[in-house]
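Re: [help] complex structure
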Amino acid sequence: MRLLGFSAFAAGVALLPVLFPDNYFVTVVGVSAGLHVILAVGLNLLMGYAGQISLGHAAFFGMGAYASAILTTRYAWPSLLAMAAGLLAAGLIAWLLARPILRLRGHYLAMATLGFGIIVHVVMVQATDWTGGPDGMAGIPPLNLLGWEIDSDRRWYGVVAATALLAIWLSLNIVDSRIGRALRAVRGSEFAARMMGIDTTRAKTQVFVVSALFAAFAGGLFAHQQAFVSPDSFNLLVSVELVIMVVLGGMASTFGAACGAIALTLLNEGLVVFEDYEMLIHGALLMTVMIFLPQGLFVGLNRLGRRLWIAVLSRHGSPPQ
Amino acid sequence: MPEQLLQFLATGVTVGSIYALVGLGFALIYNASDVVNFAQGEFVMLGAMTTVALLNAGLPLALAGVVATLLTALVGLLLERFAIEPAAGASVVSTIIITIGAAIFLRGVVLLLWGKGFHALPPFTGDAPIQFWGATLLPQSLWVLGITALLVVLVRAFFNHTLLGKALLACSFNRNAAQLVGINVRVMLRLAYALSAALGALAGILVAPITFTSYEAGVMLGLKGFSAAIVGGIGNPMGAVAGGLLLGVLESLGAGLISSGYKDAIAFLFVLMVLFFEPTGLFGHKTAERV
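Output below.
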């Protein structure tokens, strides 16, 4: 079933550019949606499965992006090596931060992650010598995969789609592994999990680091794809949007997070047309969805669909499931 | 140097008073409904922006301020009735997102009504700086300090000495038990939101003559107020006031002695340090987790 869903999703992603070549919504919005999928799927591991909120995830996204930007433009590192360095840095910081920060619960954890995100953002704006300050950094070279330059929209679609699918596949496997089960136990009751012999601190640290790595990886891709980074792409609003993607799709569902990411990307793209009404509609939609479908669009609609299906089946005389 | 320190202290206490009022609003709503209201900063902005609009419409400043506060209280009440109440029983993350949605919505409304421009309110009583021991203070700072002190005393008296305040307090301890002794919990929740919105609006009106206001002005003020509430131990109103003052003073000292650009980073670094060493805030109750 899970493999079926994944294959169908992958087939859809692969078919899109064939059906609509050079369509703006596929090659430009699609790339941005793909990056959001990687971010949301990573954050979902932390929020959906381990039950730990993060309102500062854009910080890791930014670290990946700035590592690539700084190392390629200032030190002429090859792009792949720069991305690897970004992953290493973000992973290390996440590992150092995990122990004190994941000791906190609920609103205290929300505050701490939020504060972390703001601190990183302030550093991006203020450390002008390194980051170019509020104006950002331009001229980041495209990604070079062992001699293959990723320099067109279509190639980028391919790379981002492939890595987004890889992220989904990784997440599905993590969730079904021993660590995944430990994480779900932590979300249920940390105390009970500890009684069962799970090293909850270690489990939470691991998922925090993995989730930061997903974000930093997306950040590296983002920097090379845009050829430009500025602090605005990694502010609090972005962290909040990432949380919204996860919750919009439905927490604790990898496909839910992916769908939430795609839905919010399309929504933002669509709302641009409304200019001044954009914020108003955005806020109203967010409230409405959360009030009426608190389990999220994907999970909520899925359940609704299943109920309708059962209703149809039982009307035709088949026994309900 | 001592004059300079005094100056930073004076600035810090002024800004800290505003954070304290916003934090107090957070604590009120959290106590009553276990919700951290991320639209609290928008109440601050709404109070200031509405006052500006009413002032431009020809109302005198005092009247404009009172009407703006009442209108913001109404917005708080509506928020509770139409966004929080229907989602009763939702998870912490869901309610956080609902209030973030409300914040974006309110910002959108203000943007539509009054545009992106920056506005300032005139100071309540002139702007001739007052000199004391080598430091200068704007008269508006005295207004901020005075009214904040008055509001804190009033809020305390409200909770300690009035039946309504005690009923609200009862709801924060145990909503079911409050319901059983005949307190109308739904009305109390709406009251808490209205009261908190009014406090936020007053903070906004007080600070608008010093810092400019715009449709986005509530974001950082809201976050600092949230920090104040967290540092003080969430749900402890007087802790939030102390947290706000502490945060304001540290931020001002950091900006003056280290770097003004890193002002916000210093404030949040302080919050992180507090949480790392006191995971429930400085004045929070240490409760054991029930299994």
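The CA atoms of residues 67 and 85 of chain A lie 7 Å apart.
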